[in-house]
Amino acid sequence: TVGGQAAEVVRRAAEGRCLVQVLTLGKELWLFFAAAGPTDAARIGEATAVRLHFGMSGSLLMDGAAPRFGGRSLTLQILFEGYKSLDVYEATVRLEKSAANVQTKHLEGKRRDVCAPDGEFDAAECCRVLRAKSDAMVADAVLDQAVLPGSGNIIKNEALHRARVQPLRRVASLSEEELRRVVKEVRDISVSWLRSGRSPTCSIYNRTA
């Protein structure tokens, strides 16, 4: 059963079908639904992908758990057999045109996800892709979700401050050491936030001189 504000978007893709795969990349999460089949691989090939984007305040909870902060609107609720539920708050929801394209996007970006597991995160790859944004201001490049999936404004500001890199500089002007420091600080702040469940203590974000 599907409910919530986005129910009409998801109902046709989900009701009466099986959840066969879940993928995450940065602030995006995809639910893959398919008809019952002999193997997961076969079903994934014919699946419909539902994309959730959590933005600044979105959250996903299970089995009726209450959001940490009150007043959150229920974007989507999916009830599974056995009365298990998936509850999504304050997110945007859409159906993807191609599940195969989602698989490709995830495969190409997962090593740069700022919250990827330690064994998967590839700092050198992040530096390479960031360097390719040579004409961009470093503040814009760090926020680019095609470069560092999962980065956001707080992470960007605090990471550049810690790395001692002026946000308005062009990426091309950064030394290799500066580039590595930027990626390291983005990664460190992101992982600390993920593991603690709390935003970092900010040195400059939302502060004026």
Tell me about the largest β-sheet: 4 strands, antiparallel
How many angstroms separate the termini?
Answer: 52 Å
Task: Note poorly predicted spans.
Answer: none
Note the run of SSEs as H and E.
EHEEHEEEEEHHHHH
Tally the helices: what do you get? 7
Give the strand order of the largest sheet, numbering strands 1, 2, ... along the chain: 1-6-7-5
What percent of the residues sit in helical stretches (DSSP H or I)? 25-40%
Principal-axes geometry comes out as globular
The total of beta strands comes to 8
How large, in whole angstroms, is the Cα Rg?
A: 19 Å
Kindly describe this structure:
This protein has 209 residues and is an alpha+beta fold. It has seven helices and eight strands, in the order βαββαβββββααααα. The strands form two sheets. It has a four-stranded antiparallel beta sheet with strand order 1-6-7-5, with helices on one face. The chain has a four-stranded antiparallel beta sheet with strand order 2-3-4-8, sandwiched between helices. Helix 6 crosses helix 7 (176-196). The longest helix has 21 residues, at 176-196. The protein is globular and about 55 Å long.
Topology, please?
Blueprint: E1 2-3, H1 7-14, E2 18-25, E3 28-34, H2 40-45, E4 48-53, E5 59-62, E6 74-79, E7 85-89, E8 92-95, H3 99-109, H4 123-131, H5 138-143, H6 153-163, H7 176-196
Antiparallel strand pairs: 1-6, 2-3, 3-4, 4-8, 5-7, 6-7
Helix pairs in contact: 4-7, 6-7
